[in-house]
Amino acid sequence: MEGFSFDMADLLAQVGSSPFYAMWYIFTHGGFLLFIYAFGWAALKLWVHWRQTLESRKKEYIVLAIDIPKLTEKEPGQSMRGVENIFAHLAGAHSPTSWREKWIDGKYQDPLSFEVVSIEGRVQFVIRCLRVLRDLVEASIFAQYPEAEINEIEDYAKRVPTWYPDREWDLYGTEMVPVKPVPFPLRTYEDFEHSMSGEFKDPIAVLLEGFSRLGPGEQAWLQLLALPIDQKSYVEKVMALVKKLKGEVTVKPPSILDQIITLPLKLLVFVGETAFGAGAAPAKPAGKSDQPLAAKMFNLSPGERKVLEKVENKASKIGYTCKLRFIYVAKKNVFKKPKIVGSFVGYIKQMNTNDMQALKPESNYVGVNGALWFMRDKRNDARKRKLISNYRGRSVWYGMPPFDMCTEELATLWHFPHTHQVRAPQLKKREVKFAEPPMNLPIG
């Protein structure tokens, strides 16, 4: 192509005395494609955002409160497997979009929001979803908990101010971010059962205990967003980590777009090597031959084998794109951040491991951070406004990048507790059992 032709003799003659000429020469002979790509990408993003905004105005969302049975008859671990089945069933909400639906109609996938809410110590499990998905959500829960009760309620997040600073209210919030690459799994509920005695310690108990200790004027919200996704790309990412842990070498061929983007950079490298000379390639160290895969697998330590098994187990489960938020909002005269934040962080740390995945509160860009140096109050107030806005909108994309989790990890983070272990006095539970009347009941 004529647009990619370079007169190397002319370019080399000018590069030493006029680097700006060399840059202009590259731009006019093919480098302009990078700018076309950048402007085109931005235009497409603005178009899709506009179409999705119009589509969002047509959607209706509801908030469902779930009251669990007062006495859970299932074993604790079995109960959590039931919640995992709920998440697996709700993956049916995934609706792939065609080209026209995405680019013309603005159709997009909505996340399901699984929340634990404490309003002045009264704890409630909540799910926020599209109204058209209510039957799917109720069927998923009733299939595992036939005696549960589900009611539509007003969105509690709309009862507190959204603009800070506020004269009466104050807010602390954060998002949790993964410490390691996403395919590494968290510690899940199967790890909370003692291998010898079989005793199970419910990881959500500490969160509910802390939430139940809030007093008048205090609220704490936990939001777990789960976006149904295409499983093919999810499995590919996890299996790529599996191959890496096994020692398999995989080379991904560059795409056409990658070649276009790197072409000017390769040209600059070639010009520099030609003008100033290039050193010889470093020799391969002796004794560094490729070790056979079978030998690498045989030399894995017990800990490495355990990590590999956990990652493979994650690949076998249904995956979601997720985000985890926490907000504590209270009247200024009763606002006590350490009272509840410690319980929340301790609850999360139960699922963290040093050899696999861990979640930590984000404080550099999104979370409220008291250690900021410049304009600390103004910057934190701006973060508070964004946090409460993103929470109310149940946005999975605003804030820090989301990350993938499987149904087992989701069920560990959000599940109905075993009421024999959780003693939170104000946990909303269903007090009465309902049953169908017998078929031979006399009438008259």
Description:
This protein has about 450 residues and is α+β, with helices and mostly antiparallel strands. The chain has a domain at about 60-240 and about 300-430. Helix content is about 40%, strand content about 15%. Strands 1, 2, 3, 4, 5, 6, 7, 8, 9 and 10 form a 10-stranded mixed β-sheet that branches. A hairpin with a 2-residue loop joins β2 (about 110-120) and β3 (about 120-130). α1 packs across α2 (about 20-55), α2 (about 20-55) packs antiparallel against α8 and α6 (about 205-210) runs antiparallel to α11 (about 335-350).
Which properties best describe this structure?
444 residues, alpha+beta, 13 helices, 10 strands
The Cα radius of gyration reads 27 Å
Strand tally is 10
Helix percentage: 40-55%
Low-confidence stretches: 431-435
Question: How much of the sequence is in beta strands?
Answer: 15-25%
Structural class call reads alpha+beta
Structural topology:
Elements: H1 8-15, H2 19-56, E1 61-69, H3 76-90, H4 99-103, E2 112-119, E3 122-130, H5 134-144, E4 149-153, E5 169-178, H6 205-212, E6 218-228, H7 231-246, H8 256-276, H9 293-298, H10 302-316, E7 319-331, H11 337-349, E8 359-361, H12 376-393, E9 403-406, H13 407-413, E10 429-430
Parallel strand pairs: 1-10
Antiparallel strand pairs: 1-3, 1-4, 2-3, 2-6, 5-7, 5-8, 6-7, 7-9
Helix pairs in contact: 1-2, 2-8, 3-5, 3-13, 6-11, 7-10
Structure, briefly:
The protein is α+β, with helices and mostly antiparallel strands and 444 residues long. Helices cover 41% and strands 17% of the residues.
